[in-house]
């Protein structure tokens, strides 16, 4: 099952100390090349301006821990990288428990969890600890060690371009800046990697696919600052992939526009996968869609998720793991939903019937000669498809009118097109006030009844 492969790959990425910069990001991208060998790795120097932001210093950690008065090592970064506040400055200091407590972070409401805390843009240090362990700390002198450094280095990201028949692009983004957490990090990376692998192995993709693996926020801003002209010219659909690994529910977050092809397809796919999916609004945004859909950028980026970030108890804690939260079944569900959405983009056309009245299907071998339990449904879907195929409605619109998932009618559309009963248009037709159809793909066939081919007879 695909979920097992994705889950195993996520496990291989678990231990890397990812942040918005650093070797953890580089190591993650290097592992990604085992799945998608053509991934290109880019680096942008600290201090470079990217729109209204500046690339921060690079962060590197060698070790971090606390020695208790009794000599026990706790909050060991090497045992769990969540123990260290992200971007902590170096420290080698002795202090009593009262002072130490001002640098400790825990969650009283989740006493077994280590919280995930960062301080990217203000220099500080700290440790994260479970509330249960914190309550057991003894009075006395503690030795705090953080062997880290901040220096002029690089912000690193990965990019993959899978060329299709068209230069029109589908943009797929996921973030690579969180340490050892499963749904809110590894699920997006791993599912995106296997979607890229699938698309790279497909023959004759209609569209070009652009994948980016970036640090959240600063990475998307950086990427946009360097590629905005190309993206605005070419991208007509896309997805931000986040939290696609649990098996609890499905979720949808719209683009800022809310009516893009990505939105239309996301809603259709999720409705037919799980009619109880959770539908959020733009007010609930929280990931890189904030940048991709920002005013003046306005890329058509929506999000298909399992349980949305911030909506599950384990979010941003050590409890967000690969055993209890992210599962092979959950990953397979996230992968399948996004795969169906991509297939729907590939098949996003405006069918136009090529005959007057209903065609005679029997003489073309399209009408079943044996009546079975399913044959009546198949014929009805085919006839409903034909009756709505006037060139003004997309295949998704027609599937909705037929009450079936769009993937159920792909083989029907292919069959009808092969028999010259349908023309598949890339854009809808418009009928002018003179009664003539305005669509260069179809106008020569339809504006003059004398020009109809033999298919009409």
UniProtKB/TrEMBL annotation:
Residues 7-347 form the DUF4910 domain. Pfam families: DUF2172, DUF4910, HTH_47. Residues 58-149 form the DUF2172 domain. InterPro entries: DUF2172 (IPR032610), DUF4910 (IPR032589), UCP015244 (IPR012353), UCP01524_HTH (IPR032622), WH-like_DNA-bd_sf (IPR036388). It comes from Aeromonas allosaccharophila. This is DUF4910 domain-containing protein. Residues 352-423 form the UCP01524 winged helix-turn-helix domain.
């Amino acid at each position: 099952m695909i979920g097992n492969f994705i889950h195993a790959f996520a496990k291989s990425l678990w231990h890397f100390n990812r942040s918005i910069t650093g070797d953890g990001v580089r190591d993650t991208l290097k592992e990604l090349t085992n799945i998608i060998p053509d991934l290109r790795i880019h680096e942008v120097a600290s201090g470079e301006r990217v729109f209204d932001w500046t690339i921060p210093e690079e962060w590197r950690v060698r070790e971090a821990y606390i020695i208790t008065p009794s000599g026990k090592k706790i909050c060991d970064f090497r045992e769990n990288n969540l123990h260290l506040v992200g971007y902590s400055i170096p420290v080698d200091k002795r202090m009593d428990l009262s002072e130490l407590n001002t640098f400790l972070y825990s969650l009283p409401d989740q006493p077994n969890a280590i919280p995930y805390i960062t301080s990217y843009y203000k220099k500080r240090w700290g440790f994260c600890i479970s509330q249960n362990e914190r309550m057991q700390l003894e009075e006395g002198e503690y030795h705090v060690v953080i062997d880290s450094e901040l220096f002029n280095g690089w912000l690193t990201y990965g990019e993959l371009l899978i060329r299709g028949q068209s230069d029109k692009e589908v943009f797929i983004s996921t973030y690579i800046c969180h340490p050892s957490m499963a749904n809110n990090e590894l699920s997006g990376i791993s599912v995106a990697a296997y979607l890229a692998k699938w698309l790279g192995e497909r023959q004759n993709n209609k569209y070009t696919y652009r994948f980016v693996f970036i640090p959240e926020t600063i990475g998307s801003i950086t990427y946009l600052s360097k590629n905005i002209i190309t993206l605005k010219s070419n991208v007509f659909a896309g997805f931000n992939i986040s939290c696609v690994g649990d098996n609890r529910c499905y979720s949808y977050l719209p683009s800022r526009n809310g009516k893009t092809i990505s939105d239309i397809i996301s809603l259709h796919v999720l409705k037919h996968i799980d009619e109880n999916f959770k539908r959020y609004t733009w007010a609930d945004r929280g990931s890189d869609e904030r940048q991709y859909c920002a005013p003046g950028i306005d890329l058509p980026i929506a999000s298909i998720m399992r349980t949305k970030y911030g909506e599950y108890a384990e979010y941003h804690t050590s409890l967000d793991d690969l055993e209890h939260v992210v599962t092979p079944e959950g990953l397979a569900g996230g992968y399948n939903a996004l795969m169906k959405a991509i297939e729907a983009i590939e098949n996003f056309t405006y069918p136009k019937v090529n005959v007057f009245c209903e065609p005679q299907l029997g003489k073309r071998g399209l009408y079943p000669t044996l009546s079975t339990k399913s044959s009546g449904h198949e014929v009805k879907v085919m006839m409903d498809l034909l009756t709505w195929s006037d060139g003004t409605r997309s295949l998704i619109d027609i599937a909705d009118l037929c009450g079936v998932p769009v993937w159920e009618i792909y083989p029907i559309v292919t069959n009808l097109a092969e028999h010259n009963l349908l023309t598949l248009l890339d854009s809808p037709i418009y009928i002018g006030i003179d009664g003539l159809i305005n669509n260069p793909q179809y106008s020569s066939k339809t504006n003059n009844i004398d020009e109809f081919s033999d298919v009409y007879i």
